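S.,

As promised, the magnesium ion run. Input:
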Amino acid sequence: MRSLRNQLVLALCVLVSVVGVVQGISSYQLSRAGMSALLDLRLEQAATRLYSSGLADSLPTIAARGSQPEGDIVVTIWKEGVTSPYRSTEPSLALPRDAEPGFATRSVNGENWRIYTLREPSMVIQVAQRSRVRHELTEARSMNTLWPMIVLVPLVWIAVLLVVRRALRRLTSLGAQVQAIDPTHFKTLSTSGVPTEIRPFIASINMMIERLAQSIETERKFIADAAHELRTPITALQLQADNLQPHIAPGNRERFGELQSGITRSGRLIAQLLRLARADAALQPDTLTRVDVSKVVVEVVAEVLPIAMKRGIDIGAEEMTSAHVRANEADIGIALRNLVSNAIRYTPDGGKVDLSVHLRDSMVWIEVVDTGPGIDEALLPRVFDRFFRANTQTEGSGLGLSIVQAIVNRYDGMASLRNRDDGQTGIVASVGFIAVP
Ligand SMILES: Nc1ncnc2c1ncn2[C@@H]1O[C@H](COP(=O)(O)OP(=O)(O)OP(=O)(O)O)[C@@H](O)[C@H]1O
Ligand SMILES: [Mg+2]
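Predicted complex:
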């Protein structure tokens, strides 16, 4: 009963049912009273017509007993001073002559009769009808007045259900929209078609979304600025260390080497941080071009070829479908470089890294397959998290895949990482972007 829809449907259906029942009962009662008045009118009219038209005398003197159908009215005429009826359409029925003028209900021959008595100086005319017949007539007619209600009420229930469901559908879809808000892609909710009562609610959610997006943007800018600012001193430090190298005493060479690699590591971390902050920023539409994906793949392979060769890793791009995407070319390069650098970094010497490009479901997929150890299935869902590292023996900042994710988000693309399922160990890393002709 927490659901607004159920509450509304129940309340409206109960209301409709109550109105239906009340309306049904009252129309039934009114119809019965009306029918009864009509039947009375008929008795009264029959009596007055018999008297005023002088037709009373033309009734047969001796009617056969019990010859009248049950439903018919019985007429009995009495003459002043004579004790037995002067005329009667049903002689077996002894109507009470002394009945008060007007209408009366009396029991005659063990049955209830509705009797109209017209008392005139020369005669008494009594017109009677069985109460049971009257009851059957009024009952049957009045029952008929209930049919529209009996049919309409369930129809109104269905209508209520449909109307309420339709009215709340927009609310349900809004709920789904709120649930689907992507923290990397803040979009305010649309108010078109939203019921007026819900608008203030949507407006406050939108305000909150905007504030959240703003604070995330401020934070992103801070990280980007900090990383950018840190680059210069780190470069200077590296330069100074390089200049100092020839002057280091042989006994201190090892420790100095550690210092140098520490500086290099910091430099890499800062560079990755800066890339991530940039990939998170809103896309500048004027930087978009039609990018030839194969060209980027060839460039990246050429870039890493020296490192791969040094480690005896066979890197190649075999299946290369010609495909284009609309993007900032640098973004595609950065995403791919991160995947390829992972493949090379985590694949042991003498391994193999294969790149391929294919079109599937109007998406361009770039796939990087390696022969490394793969990743523990339990850790796979977390590899796109910032600073997450599944393998701590090899150096890295844990930001590469977060950068890939941020870049695909920018273009409504997809990124995925899975273990190979062709019997070999290794990773299949892929990114998909929307293809353009
Ligand atoms: N091809 C791969 N084979 C095995 N493990 C992988 C592979 N690619 C990624 N991983 C695992 O996923 C983790 C996250 O990768 P990610 O690229 O985000 O960070 P990183 O490589 O550690 O650091 P960075 O790329 O920023 O220098 C890695 O630490 C590694 O354990
Ligand atoms: Mg990496």
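Residues 4-52 form the longest helix (49 residues). Residues 4-144 form one domain.

- D.
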